Description:
The chain is an alpha+beta fold. The chain has one domain (8-63). It has three helices and three strands, in the order E-H-H-E-E-H. Strands 1-3-2 form a three-stranded antiparallel sheet.
Amino acid sequence: xxxxxxxxxxxxxxxxxxxxxxxxxxxxxxxxxxxxxxxxxxxxxxxxxxxxxxxxxxxxxxxx
Length: 64
């Protein structure tokens, strides 16, 4: 899979990228911690939001 060319990922693909399970990734999407869009019946994750999510986790750990 070429991450540089894909702007939208399925939730399953996004889960693979960040190393989490599909269910946990869906929870993060529904909690709006990871940005997503709905195209037809599909829920697609905005690829750039994955990096934002990880950076937020790092910042939270630095402050703790």
